[in-house]
Amino acid sequence: MGDWTLRQWSLTGFVLCVAMMAAALVMEHVFGLEPCPLCVFQRVAVIAAGVVFLVAALHGPRGRAGAIIYGVLASLAVLAGAGIAGRHLWLQSLPADQVPSCGPGLDYMLDVMPFQQVLNNVLSGSGECAEVGARFLGLSIPGWTLIGFLVLLVCAFGMLFSGRGRGTAYRWNG
């Protein structure tokens, strides 16, 4: 993998984003797990990263500047999602008496509040975000999502160091 092109890293990142969104939609529509506001924001981060990965793959810039721009944009989306997933895990780890009370639903907040206030309310958390809806191999959904974001971060960093994009790869001389 050390000599992958920007396009290969981008396509890998995009496929992983599609897989993460497919898993989220299966959990919601097949298993009936309703996403909390923090889950919705994590989905937005996955979609944002997926768009960057897809555009980078389609564009396939030749120079270092393109690799840096796309790598930084993908990294920002991924790091935002990882931060939200980390916050979600922290809320789930709180003792029951320290969990914030449940607030209004995300749809209601988006209808009646300015976006900045919605963002503040969602990131401060609510009781519904502290509930652990399901576990797989001992990890909650936000735990798996955080792992997914860390894998996506490898793809974003791969883009940063991929060199010239189309067909040529940056090789470590060391």
Element layout with pairings:
Blueprint lengths: L5 H24 L7 H23 L4 H30 L12 H7 L2 H10 L2 H4 L4 E2 L2 E2 H20 L14
Antiparallel strand pairs: 1-2
Helix pairs in contact: 1-2, 1-7, 2-3, 2-7, 3-7
Organism: Halomonas binhaiensis
GO biological process, one term: protein folding
Subcellular location: Cell inner membrane; Cell membrane
Would you write up a description of this structure?
The chain is an all-alpha fold. The protein has a two-stranded antiparallel ribbon with strand order 1-2. The chain has one domain: DsbB-like (Bromodomain-like). Strand 1 and strand 2 form a beta hairpin. 68% of the residues lie in helices and 2% in strands.
Give a concise summary:
It comes from Halomonas binhaiensis. This protein has seven helices and two strands, in the order ααααααββα.
- Looking at how many chains there are and whether they match, the oligomeric state comes to single chain
> What is the residue-averaged pLDDT?
79
Unreliable segments of 5+ consecutive residues: 164-174
First-to-last CA distance? 16 Å
Approximately how much helix is present in the residues? 55-70%
Order of helices and strands: HHHHHHEEH
The CATH architecture classification is Up-down Bundle
SS element count, helices? 7
The total domain count is 1
Strand proportion: under 5%
CATH level-3 fold name: Bromodomain-like
**In the CATH hierarchy, what is the superfamily?**
DsbB-like
Number of strands: 2
How would you describe the shape? globular
CATH C-level:
Mainly Alpha
Q: Major β-sheet, in short?
A: 2 strands, antiparallel
- What structural class should be given to the helix and strand makeup? mainly alpha
Spatial sequence of strands, sheet with the most strands: 1-2
Query: What's the gyration radius in Å?
Result: 18 Å
Membrane topology: Multi-pass membrane protein
InterPro entries: DiS_bond_form_DsbB/BdbC, Disulphide_bond_form_DsbB, DsbB, DsbB-like_sf
Family: Belongs to the DsbB family.
Function: Required for disulfide bond formation in some periplasmic proteins. Acts by oxidizing the DsbA protein.
